[in-house]
Amino acid sequence: MTRLHLHLVSDSTGETLEMIAKAALAQFDDAQVTRHFWPMVRSRQHLDRIMPDIAQNPGLVLFTLVNPETRKRLEEQCRASGLPAVPALDAVTESLESQLGQEAHGKPGRQHTMDEAYFDRVEAIQYTIAHDDGIGHEDWEEADIVLAGVSRTSKTPTSIYLANRGYKTANIPIVVESPPPDVLFRLRKPLVVGLTTAPDRLVQIRRNRLLSLHEDTDTSYVQDDRVREELKYARRMFADNGWPVIDVTRRSIEETAAAAIRLLSHREADETPSLLGSKPI
């Protein structure tokens, strides 16, 4: 199998390029790819310093450089070295210019500007960290989304991902012996979303968790009947309150978060989430 060197050259943090590369590579099975990150390349001098290293590991060069001089220099040097160079955002930017009737600003790192949206995202992350695992129920009303589910249904990582997208997110574990505080059932502003999963998958995840902690796996926490009872209890609660439900069995954290955001956007567009019923999506 051919090994590919993939060079990601950016005039900013390289986060955008990394996401594009990850999404594209996911379409290939067992791809043998070595990624090389070259962030904050904003001058010809910087580019000239890294080009010898790129040439020593020939492969595909994927770049986002908005400075015309720097990108021209990169393209020239790649041609001289026989390396394909692909501008990752050109097609999208050109289409937006056409549709919006204006030229792009051409300023590197513009998406990372410390504007109001940036500080809103920081606030969302702070809120989410402070309201993990049922903490701080007194001000759950300030949340955008509240995730509810039994233990090990990815509530915390999904909450953190949503926070990084700018959504204040609280999460609450559903425990048969300890019902959630009444405030959960009186929330008006936040969208409460139930998370569920397949019993067999949940047992496996819990067993692996206990093994990683070197704890006894012969407990009710991983007993099949007990786990099914927990999930049944949670599903009944979701249905009784008309909360939309997301089945996380075969979903990544990103996919679960995307489903929650879609539910929230439906509500904001005056599409009542409860009309979706409590059937897991």
Structure, explained:
Helix content is 43%, strand content 15%. It folds into two domains: 3-112, Rossmann fold (3-Layer(aba) Sandwich); 116-276, Rossmann fold (3-Layer(aba) Sandwich), CATH 3.40.50. The strands form two sheets. The protein has a four-stranded parallel β-sheet, sandwiched between helices. Strands 6-5-7-8 form a four-stranded parallel β-sheet, sandwiched between helices. By secondary structure, the protein is of the alpha/beta class. The protein is elongated, with a radius of gyration of 24 Å. Helix 1 (15-25) links the parallel strand 1 (3-10) and strand 2. The model is unreliable at 272-276 (pLDDT under 50).
Can you lay out the helices and strands and say which pair or pack?
Blueprint: E1 3-10, H1 15-25, E2 32-38, H2 44-56, E3 60-64, H3 68-81, E4 85-87, H4 90-100, H5 116-130, E5 145-149, H6 155-164, E6 169-173, E7 191-196, H7 199-212, H8 224-240, E8 245-247, H9 253-268
Helix pairs in contact: 2-3, 5-6, 6-9, 7-8
Radius of gyration: 24 Å
**Straight-line distance between termini:** 38 Å
What percent of the residues sit in helical stretches (DSSP H or I)?
A: 40-55%
User: What structural class results from the helix and strand content?
Assistant: alpha/beta
- The structural domain count equals 2
What does the largest sheet look like? 4 strands, parallel
The CATH class assignment of the largest domain is Alpha Beta
CATH architecture of the largest domain: 3-Layer(aba) Sandwich
Number of strands: 8
Run of helices and strands: EHEHEHEHHEHEEHHEH
Q: What's the total helix number?
A: 9
From the 3D structure, determine the CATH topology of the largest domain.
Rossmann fold
Percent range for β-strand residues: 5-15%
Gross morphology = elongated
